[in-house]
């Protein structure tokens, strides 16, 4: 990944590699590599094409983070200063564009199908983010709008990561389509779990104040279910939402959501996507890589469903 963003300009290289050096889970490239091995009964090392495909997906993710941090005016990410905080918004936007360009260049080296797929995915990321922005500070956000948004801004890239793995491995079309369905389901679980943790985790666990999404006017599934349940708590919460929250109201809003059934209902929704992921795995060869994919979504959900 560091080699992929190295340029003749040391300044640009430093900015473009900032979050790579900061660490991260690298789940998207892992998805690509594991997907490329589902037909291998004794998986060995990943192919160069699978590694490059995974790098392309991760660079798209990083580019989107650079842009997100500008929009959110974030100051820290992965325990370090954000690019916008350290170098400024203009540099962050251009460096994010550079990462997307490098990702596209790598995808093109893997063939026209992968190049077209990654280009469509970048568009889906934008569509998902726009869908979220449409309902910022709107407590009446519909469930369909929420699901559409997270499928675009999060699940689409996991879906593409898995699909690229199948394509570069030369799998048949039914297997590639099953991997694509799996990636979408995994991404949906991932985002719902992330939204639940924003409510249930502590400030220390999150590295930021819990309930940050509500402060920013992004009302996620636990909040939506709490409002839909009705009652005095929901009425009080609805009166607070629709505008930025001060620290006192933020804590009160968290208390209301945590004390209701919104989190449990969100977990139930996530479990539906776990089932979809398992169904997709049923159509794949029974190999160690497929078994790893099957366990991954349930493991992800277990972080909030105890």
Describe the protein.
This protein has 306 residues and is an all-alpha fold. The protein has one domain (3-302): Farnesyl Diphosphate Synthase, CATH 1.10.600. It is built from 16 helices and two strands. Strand 1 (76-77) and strand 2 form a beta hairpin. Helix 7 (112-134) packs antiparallel against helix 8, helix 9 (173-200) runs antiparallel to helix 15 and helix 9 (173-200) runs parallel beside helix 16 (288-302). 46% of the residues are buried. The mean pLDDT is 95.
Task: Kindly summarize this structure in a few lines.
With about 300 residues, the protein is mainly alpha-helical.
Blueprint (SSEs and pairs):
Layout: H1 10-16, H2 18-22, H3 27-35, H4 48-72, E1 76-77, E2 80-81, H5 83-87, H6 89-109, H7 112-134, H8 143-168, H9 173-200, H10 203-206, H11 212-215, H12 221-229, H13 232-240, H14 247-259, H15 262-282, H16 288-302
Antiparallel strand pairs: 1-2
Helix pairs in contact: 3-4, 3-8, 4-6, 4-7, 4-8, 6-7, 7-8, 8-9, 9-15, 9-16, 12-13, 12-15, 13-14, 15-16
Key terms for this structure?
mainly alpha; two-stranded antiparallel sheet; single chain; 16 helices
